[in-house]
Design a protein that fits this description.
Layout (H helix, E strand, L loop, with lengths): L4 H5 L9 H5 L12 E8 L5 E3 L7 E3 L1 H14 L3 E7 L18 H12 L4 E6 L21 H18 L3 E4 L6 H11 L7 E8 L6 H7 L18 H13 L4 E5 L5 H10 L5 E5 L1 H12 L5 H15 L3 E4 L2 H7 L2
Parallel strand pairs: 1-3, 1-4, 1-10, 4-5, 5-6, 6-7, 7-8, 8-9, 9-10
Antiparallel strand pairs: 2-3
Helix pairs in contact: 5-6, 8-9
The structure holds zinc ion.
Protein name: Porphobilinogen synthase
């Protein structure tokens, strides 16, 4: 039995069920520690601590290393993280079975973080590309095109598994049609809707800034590209429609990704969804670009990182997913 969107829109608790998500509902314009969500790559070698060559200072972590790494950051005021799974050992299949493997890195990390850091808000990216043999974000027809219905059913299943494991927030980044509604309905059915934030990657563009991330999570598609589901860079109209659709389907937080070349879209999203927290993802390529410029002597790293973060807040963002989060915890002291 499918529920109507108006019933899904009636769920408000999911956006303020935690002290951190409550703070995101206030719409200040200064940089604060609470605004920064730190993306973490979790791999299936429990003892891993692997430097990522294209992302200075960032690592792929095994669950056994997380507590020691995060404890000082939580001490400095880290309030939220978002987890990306990086399975490297087990064979991947066409429907991304590894995504919600109970012994997989994401579910193990959710459990560990909830236990080790009771105040930390734990979000999980929800997508299939890190887990599928073909590296696409959904399930495919034989001709290699996206088969949308089983894709959103599978994404909903994965989101429910993360929520059951204790995630405060599930964040679909796949860009399949109707996945926000499918996930909300599945959470509702499982009695999890009120305690699980749904942060939608709503306006996610097909950008050249994702390269370092794909290396980090080993998720480059084995054929083709993602241009049939991620938005074309010039598509302001599609971005607007995607934001409005995700609001209508019950998203608690709207996201724009990447950030710097899309600040106008951040402002559009602010205007289209004035009653929602607005997230933006300063993606791996933006992070690498800021580092590369600083290394080349074009600008000072901290000054530039702060300038970009401020530009996001000025454009309307209230939440910033950034690899600079550990630095900002120091800089904002
Ligand atoms: Zn994906």
């Amino acid at each position: 039995m499918s529920k109507s969107n108006s019933e899904l829109n009636s769920i408000l608790h999911s956006g303020y069920q935690h002290p951190t998500s409550r703070a995101w509902q206030s719409q200040g314009r200064n940089l604060t520690k609470s605004m920064f969500m730190y993306p973490l790559f979790i791999t299936d070698d429990d003892d891993a601590e692997v430097e990522l060559a294209s992302m200075p200072g960032q690592k792929r972590w095994g669950v056994n290393k997380l507590e020691a790494f995060l404890a000082p950051l939580v001490q400095k005021g880290l309030e939220s993280v978002i987890l990306f799974g990086v399975p490297l050992k087990d064979p991947k299949d066409e429907r991304g079975t590894l995504a919600d493997d109970p012994q997989g890195p994401v579910i193990k990390a959710i459990r560990l973080l909830r236990r080790a850091f009771p105040s930390l808000y734990v979000a999980t990216d929800v997508c299939l590309c890190e887990y599928t043999s073909h590296g696409h974000c959904g399930i495919l027809f034989e001709d290699g095109t996206i088969n949308n219905e089983p894709s959103i059913a599978r994404l909903a299943q994965v989101a429910v598994s993360y929520a059951k494991a204790g995630a405060h927030c599930v964040a679909p980044s796949d860009m399949m049609d109707g996945r926000v509604k499918a996930i909300k309905q599945a959470l509702l059915k499982e009695g999890l809707a009120g305690r699980t934030t749904l942060m939608a990657y709503s306006a996610k563009f097909a950008s050249s800034l994702y390269g370092p991330f794909r290396d980090a999570v080993d998720s480059a598609p084995s054929f083709g590209n993602r241009k049939c589901y991620q938005l074309p860079p010039a598509a302001r109209g599609l971005a607007r429609r995607a934001v409005l659709r995700d609001v209508d389907e019950g998203a608690d937080i709207i996201m724009v990704k990447p950030t710097l070349p899309y600040l106008d879209i951040v402002t559009e999203a602010r205007d289209l969804a004035p009653n929602h927290p607005l997230a933006c993802y300063q993606v791996s390529g933006e992070f690498a670009m800021i580092h590369a410029g600083a290394k080349a002597g074009v600008y000072d790293l901290r000054t530039m990182a702060e300038e970009t973060a401020i530009s996001m807040v000025r454009a309307g963002a209230t939440l910033i997913l950034s690899y600079f989060t550990p630095e900002f915890l120091d800089w904002l002291d």
